[in-house]
What does this fold into?
Amino acid sequence: MPGGATLPILYHMKTTLGVYLNINDRWQKELAQLADQHPELEIIGGKEAVIARIADIDLLIALPMPEDQLRRAVRLRALFVPFVGVDHLPRQLLLDRGVRVFNVHGNAEAVAERALALALASLGRVVEFHNDLCGRHEWHGFWARGGVQDGWDSLYRKRCTIFGTGAIGRELASLLHAFGCHVTGYRRRAERGVPEGFDSVAPTLAEAIAAGELLFIALPLTPETEGMFGEAELQAAQGKLIVNVGRGELIQERPLYNALRDGVLRGAALDVWFSYPADGESCHSPSELGIHTLPNVVCSPHVGGFTPSALTANQIETVATVRDFLDGRPPRNECDLNLLY
It folds into this structure.
């Protein structure tokens, strides 16, 4: 079905589900199965169609939607976000109206794999060696008689800390164990014990930073986590590599730039940034300070969860959560809007 097209009204209306997305074949298949199981459900698909009927919507599957449109959704009872992050939502509006919010974690494997790839690329100097060999025909390593300091480093048996012990963190810990790494998880509520799949837990930020040679950040953006890595934390990470697949705002931009420029940090591998292009824009600097231009930085354009399999998994999980809600079962992955995860 063409993007933005409206699904047919499938059954007599009792509950209305709006799908504020461009409906592809996978969404069409999952929603058709949901409609077959719930004859009481009217499904309105496509962004324009949802906006036209926004005041009638009871349940909503949505990518980011303008807040003024959400304000018009006066019947809204539940919002289903088809990905992980919910920091974009108008939290107070949804809290005031008692709207329940659900997300999905179908892309956890892909994001964990991306974090691992970024770490390997940085330790292995893959981007640097590629650019030098292709651009200037410059060789590194023993061919150039550069000595061992001109080689690359291995991930094997490195000590790693993962900030965030949810679905992404657990998948990443499993991948790191294949390299014989000792994996520490950071969780503030240490009384809950060592998370499944981790070797140890650090209850404070300082202890977590000290525990790892590689620091993987996979936390959600919340009022408590925003800017949590500032000057003091980055200075304490002397000689360490930071891999961020959470949100750019978890790290303060100026202190990160300074720590990378001055060689305090070994390097950074970043899939999340401080500035993003507007809709329809494809050329945009990810850091006003130029973090992306530093030689010890590996860049990725926030595509950790953007694989065909991950997107499909998120679609299936989103519709399964709607089905649970309609069937009166406890839905998976309900978010606490006070915590934003």
In short: Confidence is low (pLDDT under 50) at residues 1-13. The CA atoms of residues 58 and 257 lie 46 Å apart.
